[in-house]
Amino acid sequence: MPKKTFYLSEEDLLVYEKAKKIAGESISSVLIQGLKDFVAKWEMQEFGFKEVQLFEGEEYYRDQYSKGQYFKFSGKQLAEAKVEHIQGVSTIYTLYLSRKGKFLLYIMFEDLTKDMCKCSKEIYDTIGDLKGKDLPPELFSQADKAMPNLFVEVLDI
Fold first, then answer.
1. Which of 9, 18, 112, 157 is the most exposed place for a label (fewest CB within 10 A)?
2. How far apart are CA 123 and CA 121, in angstroms?
3. Are 99 and 44 in contact (CB under 8 A)?
4. Could you tell me which of 69, 86, 141, 81 has the C-alpha nearest to residue 105?
């Protein structure tokens, strides 16, 4: 197994000793996890990914009451489209690309006549999986502008 040497300042030595005490003999795995986290964070910033936090469930504005939970993921917003149904009632579709290459469709149905909204998420493996859905066309055109190669079929011939 290869060995690497690293040097610590006096200040950092205290953190190292504390981590070693917590981790026991498996300090190498802690160091590797820290390096993985560092690389993942750098890659997220490099490619425009951010930590996204959204709500799934129902919110009642007037009563300041919500039923559901927040979730978060590393992603990049590709597109957003709003569909007005009738006065005060609309659906907002937001499409995200996750750091792992999946697509999250966030749907917010808002009814201002009842001072409420209902939010849900759907996760897809490919952008093609979204094609059969009843979604606004501008969602796809915006996504195509955000990622020009998104709708290009790669042939292995």
1. 157
2. 7
3. yes
4. 81
104 neighbors 122 (Cβ within 8 angstroms)? yes
At 16, the pLDDT band (50, 70, 90 cuts) reads confident
73 neighbors 52 (Cβ within 8 angstroms) = yes
Summarised one tens digit per residue, pLDDT across range 94-129 is 999 998 889 999 999 999 989 999 999 999 998 889
Rounded to a whole number, what is the largest CA-CA distance in the chain?
67
Q: Is 145 exposed, middle or buried (0-12, 13-18, 19+ CB in 10 A)?
A: exposed
Residue 5: the pLDDT is 83
Q: Specify the amino acid at residue 6.
A: F
**Among residues 94, 38, 98, 39, which one has the least CA distance to residue 74?**
98
